[in-house]
Design brief:
This protein is an alpha/beta fold and 333 residues long. The protein is built from eleven helices and twelve strands. A three-stranded parallel β-sheet has the order 2-1-5, with helices on both faces. It has a three-stranded mixed β-sheet with strand order 6-7-12. It has a two-stranded antiparallel ribbon with strand order 3-4.
């Protein structure tokens, strides 16, 4: 990931182009940057690689009826935002074509690991001439930029793969959260991947929602520093609407009272396999791998594969961002 200063320069490019105060709430395009939560299929342009579990059935079964590279059973948040504003689903930027109504630069290039933000910005800059010619400032001032979330995969690599200590990973937070805008982190201590791999027999390690305190504290710390950075950016760009999308609070509420969001299950995985705990998650038989299978009613589930959410959850999150109370200020105000 980019260091703090580099990320700030990258965001300067984006924020100077974001929607100005007072402009009518109608967007001509949506531009998305991020990780596997946002990816609409950049890695699957020309066909999903065989090693990519997210490129195998049953991913995509609910809406597209085939894998598209989206890490869900169907659409993701940026898809629902686009639909709300009457725009086409954001196409993968690597696919080529007409991007006058936006594109998605987000990419997952390894399991739970996204392409660097500066690479995504480079793709964005390369396609701009074909989109807006010599009048990009005016054109992009009517666009919605979704920047992130970022940081989650940095922590995943440190905690899940490198098995670094929590103290060491917390030391990275100021670098990874500073100078970035957009959505915050999910409560990673509530994700079945973490609950299964780092579960303990000590009740004090869990909060009243059944989530791992230490890991949720990491997400909270990241989000607090991110919100501080956003406050600084708002002072620097007072005529730009800079919004903070609160993944953490909404997903926590969806776990606590799933029925309030039209769901039945909070911490149980829809697409997975049993054998390692009570969450239907097995790290050796993840969704898309041999031994895993999907539930027959994903619309009742919050969590799709242990670390990504279902289409039903993403629809609800998009609604919370558009109308509030989970985006400050709401996208649609």
């Amino acid at each position: 990931m980019a260091a703090n200063g580099k990320a700030t320069l990258i965001l300067d490019l984006l924020l100077l182009c974001m929607l100005r105060h007072g402009v009518a709430q109608q967007y001509n395009a949506i531009w998305s940057f991020g990780d596997s939560i946002s990816d609409t299929g950049n890695l699957c342009v020309g066909g999903c690689p065989a090693w990519l579990t997210m490129g195998q059935p049953p991913y995509g079964e609910t809406f597209f009826h085939r894998p598209t590279g989206r890490c869900s059973d169907g659409r993701v948040i940026v898809d629902f935002l686009a639909e709300h504003f009457g725009l086409p689903l954001p196409p993968a930027s690597k696919a080529g074509g007409d991007f006058k109504k936006g594109a998605n630069m987000a990419i997952i290039n390894k399991i739970w690991n996204n392409g660097p933000l500066d690479t995504q910005i480079q793709w964005f800059r390369q396609l701009l001439p074909s989109v807006c010619g010599n009048d990009c400032k005016n054109y992009l001032s009517k666009s919605l930029f979704v920047v992130g979330e970022f940081g989650g995969n940095d922590y995943n690599v440190g905690l899940l793969f490198s098995r670094r200590s929590m103290a060491e990973v917390r030391g990275y937070v100021p670098k990874w959260s500073g100078g970035r805008g957009g959505p915050g982190l999910l409560p990673i201590g509530c994700l079945p991947t973490y609950l299964t791999l780092f579960g303990t027999s000590n009740a004090a390690d869990y909060d009243h929602d059944g989530c791992l305190r230490n890991y949720n504290d990491l997400s909270s710390y990241h989000n607090a520093l991110l919100k501080r950075s956003l406050s600084n950016l708002r002072r620097t760009y007072p005529h730009t609407r800079i919004m903070y999308a609160d993944f953490y609070t909404q997903v926590t509420n969806m776990i606590r009272t799933p029925h309030n969001f039209g769901l039945k299950y909070g911490l149980k995985v829809c697409c997975g396999a049993g054998g390692q705990g009570k969450y239907n998650y097995n790290n050796s038989a993840r969704c898309g791998m041999s031994g895993a299978s999907a539930c027959t009613d994903p619309g009742n589930y919050l969590i799709w594969d242990g670390i990504h959410l279902t289409e039903a959850a993403y629809r609800s999150i998009a609604d919370g961002w558009l109308k509030g109370p989970y985006c400050n200020p709401p996208i649609q105000h």
